[in-house]
């Protein structure tokens, strides 16, 4: 579950960093809480559809490319190319954030900056330093190998949560507190402007297939439990931080609430925790980026040489971009709007709707296997006193009918999710054009 860690959205990275508390200030507590839960529900459903799609593929071979090969083969390269670009851009943005934050962190730890070496306050030094840390992590083949670094990142997140809740409980922000609205909102435009921040906070779908491939026994109950636990935990944390952060400062809360706290060792450690969280998320972007690049050109297991070459290429290019470019706001605004919505909503919905069609040979093969399993289980559960096995056949027929009804409903919901993703993409593109890039 730690590897289904949810990364920050790919928007407003530098000049504007609206967080959940700031979104709550624009939406009000009631609507803001509903939107956070709704975003978690739709993102979780996208993850669930990915687990259902994986059943139609060979065990351990699940990927967006493998699905597109049997659903939309002509667009397979486009899908994986978009995923690779999205993950690469997000990885670069993480390096840029590290370069932006670490000089400030050092100023918080060093009382007199004149006594410290000048390079400690240079963004390029910290980008290089963190690259040396994440390079070995990026060369790990399995996501499972990153579980310990994920635990460290989750510890950093836990510290941030404790800090926000502590300041709310201590009441040391009352002097700067503004109006608090439980129902009143700031209007449709501010609400829509903060909508992507909440929606994309749940994005982790690019790693879902890799996790399914690595789970030893990916049963329906087990994979669903992982999704429910991950999304449920994330939603609970987002609601807790949003409400306590908003109640601390009211409508005066800014996007990066940690920057609003009075200078202290605790606040400086919180900024360092953000850097650790972001830095350890970089390998989680390299993994799907590498897999997508490999799938674009070939469709078989990666050799060690090819694995090393692709990883080296991604690391070098992302490092060069992070060192030479100080802001990717405009590019990432569009990459996030298209890439994240596609991975989270559109592709899972379209893939499942296509592959589960009654006339699909893949669906027919899977249905036959499931019907055989249901019939066998019905026979095993039957009573030896029943004549002619009529009860067993009736039980089998009822189970098959129930499965067909559930599958039909799931297909309709998957198509609705894809349509919802298109709407989210349009909303985000409009917001990016008129409220971010234009400024």
Automatic annotation (TrEMBL):
Name of protein: Amino acid transporter transmembrane domain-containing protein
Superkingdom assignment: Eukaryota
Source organism of this protein record: Hortaea werneckii EXF-2000
Residues of the Amino acid transporter transmembrane domain: 21-368
Predominant place of localization: membrane
Cellular component annotations (GO), alphabetically ordered: fungal-type vacuole membrane
GO-annotated molecular function: L-arginine transmembrane transporter activity; L-glutamate transmembrane transporter activity; L-histidine transmembrane transporter activity; L-lysine transmembrane transporter activity; L-serine transmembrane transporter activity; L-tyrosine transmembrane transporter activity
Residue ranges crossing the lipid bilayer per the database entry: 23-49, 70-97, 117-139, 151-170, 182-204, 225-249, 261-284, 305-325, 331-353, 413-438
A Pfam family that the UniProt record links to this protein: Aa_trans
């Amino acid at each position: 579950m730690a590897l289904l860690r949810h990364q920050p959205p790919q928007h407003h990275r530098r000049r504007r960093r609206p967080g959940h508390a700031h979104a709550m200030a624009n939406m009000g507590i009631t609507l803001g809480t509903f939107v956070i839960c709704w975003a978690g529900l739709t993102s979780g459903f996208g993850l669930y559809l990915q687990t259902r799609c994986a059943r139609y593929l060979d065990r351990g071979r699940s990927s967006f490319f493998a699905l597109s090969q049997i659903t939309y083969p002509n667009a397979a390269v486009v899908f994986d190319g978009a995923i690779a670009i999205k993950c690469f851009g997000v990885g670069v943005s993480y390096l840029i954030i590290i370069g932006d934050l670490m000089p400030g962190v050092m100023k918080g730890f060093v009382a007199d900056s004149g006594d410290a070496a000048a390079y400690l306050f240079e963004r390029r030094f910290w980008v290089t330093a963190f690259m040396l840390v994440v390079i070995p992590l990026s060369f790990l083949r399995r996501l499972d190998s990153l579980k310990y670094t994920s635990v460290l990142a989750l510890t950093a997140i836990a510290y941030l949560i404790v800090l926000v809740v502590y300041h709310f409980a201590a009441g040391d922000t009352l002097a700067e507190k503004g109006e608090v609205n439980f129902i009143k909102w700031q209007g449709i435009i501010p609400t829509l402007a903060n909508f992507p921040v909440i929606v994309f906070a749940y994005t982790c779908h690019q790693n879902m297939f890799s996790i399914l491939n690595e789970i030893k026994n990916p049963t329906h109950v087990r994979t669903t439990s992982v999704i429910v636990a991950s999304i449920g935990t994330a939603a609970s944390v987002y609601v807790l931080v949003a409400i306590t952060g908003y109640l601390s400062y009211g409508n005066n809360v800014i996007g990066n609430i940690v920057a609003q706290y009075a200078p202290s060792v605790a606040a400086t450690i919180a900024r360092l925790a953000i850097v650790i969280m972001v830095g350890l998320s970089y390998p989680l972007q390299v993994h799907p980026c590498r897999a997508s690049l490999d799938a674009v050109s070939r469709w078989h297991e990666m050799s060690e040489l090819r694995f090393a070459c692709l990883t080296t290429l991604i690391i070098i290019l992302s490092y060069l971009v992070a060192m030479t470019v100080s802001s990717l706001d405009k590019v990432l605004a569009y990459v996030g709007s298209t890439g994240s919505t596609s991975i989270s909503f559109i592709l899972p919905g379209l893939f499942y709707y296509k592959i589960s069609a009654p006339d699909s040979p893949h669906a027919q093969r899977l249905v036959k296997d499931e019907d055989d399993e249901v019939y066998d289980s019905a026979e095993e559960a039957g009573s030896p006193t029943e004549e002619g096995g009529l009860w067993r056949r009736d039980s089998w027929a009822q189970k098959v009918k129930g499965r067909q009804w559930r599958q039909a409903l799931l297909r309709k919901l998957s198509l609705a999710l894809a349509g919802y993703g298109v709407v989210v993409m349009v909303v985000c593109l409009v917001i990016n054009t008129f409220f971010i890039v234009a400024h």
